[in-house]
Amino acid sequence: MKNTFAILLTGFILLISCNKENKDNGLVRVVFDPGHLKFISTSLNPKKETMSALYGNSKALESLSKENSQPESGTVIKLVTWRYHENPQYTGGTITGELVSIETLQSDEKGSVSYEMKNAESNNLSVNKEERIQYLMSYHPVSRP
Question: Cα dihedral sign for 29, 35, 39, 42?
Answer without folding.
Answer: negative
